[in-house]
Predict the structure.
Amino acid sequence: MDYYMLGLMLLLLVGSVMVYVYYLKDKKEQLDSIKRGFCPQCKQNNIELTDQRSGGCSGPQIMMFECTACGYTNSFAVQDPNSCCGPNSCK
Ligand SMILES: [Zn+2]
């Protein structure tokens, strides 16, 4: 086994995991900002919910947000605790 290649592959693996973790953390921070009503990009309260799609009882909701001030758009998969699968209304 070539140890140089093995080391390189390990480095790539660790690197991609770190990028993924950073991406998730960044995404969560953006969603937190949007939940407070502020655009994560320009920090103004011009964020609007443009589209909302439910993935059904089993899946999360896909929510699209757009900032009317700077044009920032992003979509988030949100697990809604008050969806159709509540304690009394699950079909
Ligand atoms: Zn903005």
User: Anything to note?
Assistant: The chain has a mean pLDDT of 87.
